[in-house]
Amino acid sequence: MAAVDMDPDVARRLFEEGATLVLLGVPQGTELGIDYKSWQVGPRFRGVKMVPPGLHFLHYCAVNNPSCGGEIGPKKGLFLTLKPREIVLATWDPQEEDLNFSDSQNEEEVSRTRDNLRELDPFLGPYPYEIMRKWVSLTDRLTQELVSELQPLSGRICAFADVIPELQLKHTKDRAEQNLPRNDKACQSMKEGLDKLPKMKQREGTELRFSHIPSQTYPPGATPAQVTQCSLDLSYALETVLNKHYKLQPLNVLGELQFAFVCFLIGDVYEGFEHWKCLLALLCRSEEAMRARKDLYLGLIAVLYHQLGEVPPDFFVDIVSQNNFLTSTLQDFFQCTNAPGIDSTLRKRAEKFKAYLVKKFRWDFDADLEDCAPVVVELPEGVTVD
């Protein structure tokens, strides 16, 4: 970790008030980072100093035989909320290829480390202060309480899901009882081969605990007209999510949006990206909610402004269909913000955001939606489609 030029007053304040992560035994070559920056660990590394108090994301990838150009393992990470002058201790567990933070609960060990900070100082890299503003802009709606509700019970956010077989079928007899195909029989098709694979499930306690977004967007017993309306305007589904998870603090849903984005952008968790897409679509297609929840949507624009500043213009384009899901989602959003009854402040803010996106990404939000409508094909007389 190379030292970074820093304003002397800022450096002095961080030296006096900053927290310290003492990370012992991390193998040389391990990729380790905090927030929006990462490094390859060298032989002298013992941790990170001068960490600004607040919420941070520590992440790392184990490397197999780095001296021989070994392979990099999947990324793991965890959120930490650090207090001024706090010392957090962790030791690398080579068997689990993970950091063990149990020493942080030992007051004597923490006190001994604090007394030895002067000797440790040459082996501690300074927090990369130049990324602090960017990190705060990506997580300003995220609190430790919200993180605790969303992250896995294990406390670790992993790029690859930890999966185990749904059923422990060690013998052929066990498979026969479940009416599953035998492994010693040649497969005649791809489907048969897939059927032979054991059904997997995520290990309990390792699942991200995102809010459940209902697949049914209309209330029970809805009339056909209500079903149509609730399919076009997703406000009912959004209110269902808010009432279930964020009844007292509805703006916390923006914190969940940030959590999902950070899990994907920094933690390499694809599930985070998928949830971010679903949650964003729900928010952007809820016209009635925009009339009732101005502050939520003003906050959404601010969150998206910072998030979209961190991705390349073609990131959201589907390679196969060349369909940019974000363009269509935001096109719906901007149409809703122009609807009757929308607060003028929200409408003006949305117009400025739209102009910013057009300039930065050259996205066209004014394309005729009829161009995307299904094409009706006339079949010759007597021809039917099964």
Summarize the structure.
With 386 residues, this protein is α+β, with helices and mostly antiparallel strands. The chain has helices spanning 8-17, 107-115, 117-120, 132-139, 144-150, 172-177, 190-196, 224-232, 235-245, 252-265, 270-284, 287-292, 294-308, 325-337, 344-361; strands at residues 19-24, 31-34, 37-40, 47-51, 54-61, 76-82, 87-93, 98-100, 124-126, 157-158, 163-165, 200-202.
Question: Can you walk through the features of this model?
Answer:
Residues 372-380 have low confidence and may be disordered. With 386 residues, the chain is of the alpha+beta class. The protein has helices spanning 8-17, 107-115, 117-120, 132-139, 144-150, 172-177, 190-196, 224-232, 235-245, 252-265, 270-284, 287-292, 294-308, 325-337, 344-361; strands spanning 19-24, 31-34, 37-40, 47-51, 54-61, 76-82, 87-93, 98-100, 124-126, 157-158, 163-165, 200-202. The protein is built from 15 helices and 12 strands. A hairpin with a 4-residue loop joins strand 7 and strand 8 (98-100).
Quickly give the CATH architecture of the largest domain. Answer: Alpha Horseshoe
Distance between the termini: 65 Å
Our count of helices gives 15
Strand order of the largest sheet: 8-7-1-4-9
CATH topology of the largest domain: Serine Threonine Protein Phosphatase 5, Tetratricopeptide repeat
How much of the sequence lies in strands comes to: 5-15%
Principal-axes shape call = globular
Share of helical residues: 25-40%
Main beta-sheet strand count, sense and barrel state? 5 strands, mixed
Order of helices and strands: HEEEEEEEEHHEHHEEHHEHHHHHHHH
Query: What is the number of domains?
Result: 3
Overall residue-averaged pLDDT value: 86
The CATH homologous superfamily name of the largest domain equals: Aar2, C-terminal domain-like
Tell me the structural class.
Answer: alpha+beta
Q: Using only CA atoms, what is the Rg? A: 26 Å
Please count the beta strands (DSSP E, at least 2 residues each).
12
Low-confidence stretches: 372-380
At the first level of CATH, the class of the largest domain is Mainly Alpha
